[in-house]
């Protein structure tokens, strides 16, 4: 059986939640739970200041788009493509392109089964981000956030920094 991947469906702006609900209803009606695994409308917390009052609200990260974790085949393509409010998949022509694991990781969606070859006390080098080419000793490992805390030297003192698994390699 093919492996599920994340795809991006383009929708009419403002219809994201309606499209999500419609796809979930169709999954239930057609018994496609094993082929279309998850439908998401990515949200972010934004602090707004109105009339002098700070308020945290959730805004759509990508207005007009819905993320779908599914096994791409003719049935799933047809179901999503013919959902009211969906204008198509993101990709060249009519061919949907799945998102990479790194792209999904950057969106905050992480695969649940991650194995790492490092532990507290190991020396690692940072291979990406602001701290690239920095050496550090792992102080703690956070499997939930898929990150480690390392100590780096900053202005002559040891400073703890949180780095994602994707940005480090064991020395």
Keywords:
3 helices; Alpha-Beta Plaits; single chain; alpha+beta; 2 domains; SH3 type barrels; 11 strands; four-stranded antiparallel beta sheet
Structure description:
With 171 residues, this protein is of the alpha+beta class. It is built from three helices and eleven strands; from the N terminus they run βαββββαβαβββββ. It has helices spanning 16-30, 74-81, 101-106; strands at 5-11, 36-40, 43-50, 53-60, 65-70, 86-89, 123-126, 135-142, 147-154, 157-164, 168-170. It has a five-stranded antiparallel β-sheet, with no helix packed on it. A hairpin with a 4-residue loop joins strand 8 and strand 9 (147-154). The longest helix is centred in the N-terminal third of the chain and has 15 residues, at 16-30. It is globular and about 60 Å long. The protein starts with a strand and ends with a strand.
